[in-house]
């Protein structure tokens, strides 16, 4: 089965490329998204005990990835794509948590304490059935008027990691000190929900106040290929490597499939189901700090994310292997039936031979 997985991934990638149409651009300034990378399905396979959440990509090498051009989120035009390279997205689950690896080529840029001069990533998921990718949920209300009632159905779930205060290879996100909301005072890996770009809140906070029942359910770490692996960085080592070095950024995240959210502030994932998802990237191009809306995204609409069940991974993904295995089982079954018949036959012959003299004797 392992042998067939790369082939299968290649086939999926090939089909994806074949069917992915070109992004269109609406000159009038109205939003239009023709592409939506149609046909692309990100698969989160059941692969327990494979990855460690440390920002390092080595343990993901056998997991198939999906490559996306990064286009400006607000005006997706091929000419304005992120020049550094594509974003590779990988996902898997272990039956309890989902794991993501985002991988983007980029010269090392790190400015301690200034997140806008460091790269940054976000994941976004649909929560409400009417939540659009465009306008982060697409609720029509304005900041003063949006509430969980009039924006009902437009909820999206966002994880945002700004690395300006995060040490590479260290774990950030939900922690005991920040319990009660989606914030993270240490590494700024936050759990957010929104109804549109202007009605965006940390989990547990909202226009009507605080509930203090929420939590930051995400954890994550970052790394860059130009960093030297050693026993562990501390804050004083910043900027950890020399700025401008060519390489690849890695961002690794995990979250439980289900969370204890009671207010439509977290997406809930289900094995066997498909969720709607997107990924975004900010980069200080030419050293210039990025601003909030200056991000690139992997697609101009939701991408499907399949949570593949452990059962279907065993029987489904490698058809050829499955059928040859089935053949082996059938053959050994046949052999055992033949052996059984043979033993019955031999036993019968033996007892016949033994019986005959006795019957003959009784006849005598
Ligand atoms: C751009 O959007 C407007 C408004 O939705 C629409 O009328 C127009 O046909 C679109 N143009 C293109 C080239 O898609
Ligand atoms: C989503 O929109 C449809 C059609 O407008 C509506 O019937 C439905 O109630 C909406 N769903 C939610 C959760 O508001
Ligand atoms: C911000 C928020 O979600 N507030 C909610 C806290 O809980 C009460 C009662 O369940 C809700 O009415 C609020 O909307």
From TrEMBL:
InterPro entries associated with the record: Cyt-c552/DMSO_Rdtase_haem-bd
The keyword Signal is annotated on this UniProt entry: yes
Signal peptide (from-to): 1-24
Keyword Cell wall biogenesis/degradation attached: no
Coiled-coil positions: none
GO molecular function: heme binding; metal ion binding
CDD domains, per database record: DOMON_like
Keywords annotated in UniProt: Electron transport, Heme, Iron, Membrane, Metal-binding, Signal, Transmembrane, Transmembrane helix, Transport
Membrane-spanning residues: 327-348
Pfam families: EB_dh (PF09459)
UniProt domain Cytochrome c-552/DMSO reductase-like haem-binding: residue ranges: 57-297
Family matches, as PANTHER family: HEME BINDING PROTEIN (PTHR36044)
Name of this chain's protein: Uncharacterized protein isoform X2
Organism: Spinacia oleracea
């Amino acid at each position: 089965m392992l042998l067939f997985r790369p082939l299968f991934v290649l086939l999926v990638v090939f089909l994806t490329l074949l069917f992915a149409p070109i992004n269109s651009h609406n000159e009038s300034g109205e939003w239009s998204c023709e592409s939506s990378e149609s046909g692309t399905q990100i698969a989160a396979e059941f692969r327990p005990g494979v990855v460690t959440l440390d920002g390092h990509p080595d343990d993901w090498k056998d997991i198939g990835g999906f490559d996306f051009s990064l286009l400006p989120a607000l005006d997706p035009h091929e000419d304005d794509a992120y020049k550094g390279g594509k974003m590779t997205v990988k996902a898997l689950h272990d039956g309890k948590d989902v794991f993501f690896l985002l991988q983007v080529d980029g010269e090392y840029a790190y400015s301690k304490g200034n997140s806008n001069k460091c790269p940054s990533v976000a994941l976004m998921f649909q929560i409400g059935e009417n939540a659009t990718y465009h306008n982060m949920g697409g609720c029509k209300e304005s900041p003063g008027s949006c509430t969980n009632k009039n924006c009902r159905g437009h909820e999206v779930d966002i994880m945002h990691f700004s690395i300006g205060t995060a040490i590479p290879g260290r774990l950030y996100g939900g922690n005991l000190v920040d319990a009660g909301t989606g914030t993270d005072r240490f590494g700024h890996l936050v759990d957010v929900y929104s109804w549109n770009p202007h009605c965006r809140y940390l989990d547990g906070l909202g226009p009507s106040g605080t509930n203090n029942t929420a939590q930051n359910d995400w954890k994550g770490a970052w790394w860059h290929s130009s960093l030297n692996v050693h026993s562990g960085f501390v804050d004083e080592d910043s900027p950890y490597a020399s700025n401008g070095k060519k390489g690849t950024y890695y961002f690794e995240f995990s979250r439980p499939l289900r969370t204890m959210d009671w207010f439509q502030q977290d997406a809930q994932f289900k094995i066997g189901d498909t969720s709607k998802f997107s990924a975004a990237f900010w980069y200080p191009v030419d050293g210039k700090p990025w601003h909030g809306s200056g991000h690139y995204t992997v697609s101009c609409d939701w991408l499907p994310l399949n949570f593949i069940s452990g059962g279907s991974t065993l029987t489904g993904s490698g058809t050829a292997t499955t059928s040859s295995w089935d053949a082996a089982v059938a053959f050994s079954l046949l052999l055992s039936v033949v052996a059984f018949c043979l033993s019955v036959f031999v036993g019968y012959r033996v007892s016949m031979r033994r019986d005959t003299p006795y019957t003959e004797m009784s006849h005598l």
